[in-house]
Amino acid sequence: MNSVKVGLLGLGTVGGGTVKVLSRNAHEIMRRAGRGIEVAHASARDLSKPRICDTTGITLTQNPFEVVNNPELQVIVELIGGTDQARELVLRAIANGKHVVTANKALIARHGNEIFAAARDKGVMVAFEAAVAGGIPVIKAIREGLAGNRIEWLAGIINGTGNFILTEMRDKGRDFADVLAEAQRLGYAEADPTFDVEGIDAAHKLTILASIAFGIPLQFDKAYTEGISRITRQDVGYAEELGYRIKHLGIARRTEEGIELRVHPTLIPHRRLIANVDGVMNAVLVKGDAVGPTLFYGAGAGAEPTASAVVADLVDVVRTLTSDPENRVPHLAFQPDALSDLPILPMEKVETAYYLRMQAQDRPGVLADVTRILADQNISIEAMLQKAPANGDGSVPVVILTHRIREQQMNEAIRRIEALGTMAGPVMRMRVEHLKG
Q1: What's the rounded Cα separation, in Å, for the pair 377 and 405?
Q2: Could you tell me if residue 278 is inside a domain?
Q3: Are residues 356 and 281 in the same domain?
Q4: Chain Cα centroid distance, residue 178
Q5: Is position 437 within any domain?
Q6: CA Rg, the chain, in Å?
Q7: Sequence-separated contacts (24+) of 269-276 with Cβ below 8 Å
Q8: Are 218 and 259 in contact (CB under 8 A)?
Q9: What's the predicted TM-score (pTM) here?
Q10: Residues with active-site annotation
Q11: Which of 16, 28, 36, 261 could form a disulfide bond with 52, CB atoms 3.0-4.6 angstroms apart?
């Protein structure tokens, strides 16, 4: 049987890794897919740039539309990133009757509903395992392996840059800005690190995971996003003292009122497995009603880990080239006409525990004022730390852990605490999740 001819958009880190894996493991891949998979045509912005792969036998072009319009190709792999041109290319490929594999989380999170509808109309597949958590096959696990479960919640460390920064701050007592600069030098963070450290990248991925887990349309615009740039090494130390570690988590939870969809710094008990995922590694914890908690761990980025997911998607596509489109695994796990209209909860309605750090004047009655405000909002205190003032400083850091309460009540409590004349600066607030099975 003839090999399946693939067009590749982008020959950067992941594109080069994909060519390498397809070449090195060609025999094993053919044994699994039943046919060979051959990259026949590829586009790159700069054809003179050195590559990490051998492009012998691949027709190269600077124009990606030449690739998607090539009638000899059956599958297009989109690895150029961004959303505008990528969306146009993917929709053109679908219109031309080609299957699509993509690692583009922003494209799927923002335009996936449109892209999947177009693919259904043309009877083609869009596969996107590499869009979330690099080489970890978490999309397939949720969509297929956990299909017998009602997913209750999931929580993930799904951005390696943020995890590297928080790990270095904890292990070496370093400041955020110092570690961010190192992450940029090492290539973990971009020159503009906003997508990573402010949680936008993680929110793209969480949007995809939540849609597959709960059978809801993709709704990136409703995800709550908060970054890690305000976290200090003191916060990291106080969390450790209280038995917690700070992780930048994406959390999606099904409730009676709707779906929580949020990315923010989170204190997790240090004994949880996910709290011990360090450096640039990723992990996703999924709680199903039948299976209980399951943890998926591995490399969330890199040439070959991400290529691993891209090639796995290619194998899936090749296996189903001759199958009835009506009997394929649905893009978002649930049949398109069975997607739920459960609303995404606004953050004010989310219930969680909290870590509060404030700088208070060192005089009688200050803590009483704070605890009175918390009590007025029905907020119970679980633990408290008060540190000695620095020499010559008339204020002290106070750290409070609370029990679970609605965000709306905590917002009001923080507003009133910050209005006290005895507070120096704003209250630092982080959520606390115990992630119990």
Answers
A1: 9
A2: yes
A3: no
A4: 24
A5: no
A6: 24
A7: 269/243, 269/244, 269/434, 269/435, 270/240, 270/243, 270/244, 270/245, 272/434, 272/435, 274/155, 274/157, 274/247, 274/435, 275/244, 275/245, 275/247, 276/245
A8: no
A9: 0.95
A10: 205
A11: 16
